Amino acid sequence: MGVRVTTASVADGDRAAFWSGAVSRSLVPLEVHPRTGRPFDGLLESHRLGYVRISTLEADAARLSRTAALIARAPRSEPQVGVGLQVAGRAVLEQDGRRAEVPPGGLVLYDTARPYAVDYPERFRTHLFHVPRRMLGVPERDLRHASATAVGPTEGCGPVLLPFLGVLAASAHSFPAPVGDRLAGSVADLFGTLIAQLAPARETDEPGAQNVHLVQRVREYVDRHLGEPDLSPERIAQAHHISVRYLHRLFEGEGVTVSRLVQQLRLEACARELARRGRTAPTVSAVAQRWGFVNPAHFSRTFRAAYGVSPREWRSLPHGEPG
């Protein structure tokens, strides 16, 4: 189930505020300032593909701003990396003191954890892809360098990335959940590649460079084997030919232990699946087992500690679209 919002039936004077609220709820909190004197016209369509949020915005000329004040109001919000694929109209994105002009057919990358603004000087249509920053496994400095950098259809990985994202945005609503989860991993890999390409070249022997790539490989391994109950630090370390002690040292800089990362990702997968509606919805215990929880009581306690409600209570909440 996706989200579709249009200003067509909204009173003229309320349209901009109505659309701004819809965009803020579906993406991240933003301020929308129309650029025309006529009643604002806007459309938003949004779908979830695993942990990737794909949204299509079509609207009159406007400026969308994510200010420091808006970021401060939600300090616990998970940082997202956004990629905007411009379909029609131009876009000008500003972040970290840089300015990127994006023509139709181009894309630009940004970080929702830091202020940015996007100007659309004319009526526009754009696809926005939001991915949790932790899923990319890229260094903070590389992300800062890559933000507000435009990529054209013939530049770098543009010839591969742009057509793929366009097709994905058009068909995101049609994929079943297991396929969506796998495609989300492909999107994260491609965005990580894009950031690595846009980041300044580093010497291969630079301190920490190999560690960054190893952390990314560990994260990818965890994603692939998340539903297997025996996924443990010992097994992960063995698969990567390192000691458990060294594995823990690698993740000291990530702000999360390996065991906690596995548990967190499993809980997120369970929460997404339990929030879905359907006549053939699986039982809570079946969902827990599918994502590696072998003890139902332990799963219920862990879920309540993370989300404040039991798995059954979570299932009955009015989620709309999960996530």
Sum up the structure in keywords:
2 domains; alpha+beta; five-stranded antiparallel β-sheet; 323 residues; Jelly Rolls; 42% helix; seven-stranded antiparallel β-sheet; Arc Repressor Mutant, subunit A
Account of the protein in words:
The chain has 323 residues and is of the alpha+beta class. The protein folds into two domains: 3-198, Jelly Rolls; 209-316, Arc Repressor Mutant, subunit A, CATH 1.10.10.60. Helices cover 42% and strands 21% of the residues. It has helices at residues 15-26, 68-73, 140-146, 158-171, 177-198, 209-224, 233-239, 244-252, 258-275, 284-290, 296-307, 311-316, and strands spanning 3-6, 31-34, 42-49, 52-59, 62-66, 80-88, 91-95, 98-102, 107-111, 116-120, 124-132, 150-151. A seven-stranded antiparallel sheet has the order 1-3-4-11-6-9-12, sandwiched between helices. Residues 201-207 have low confidence and may be disordered.
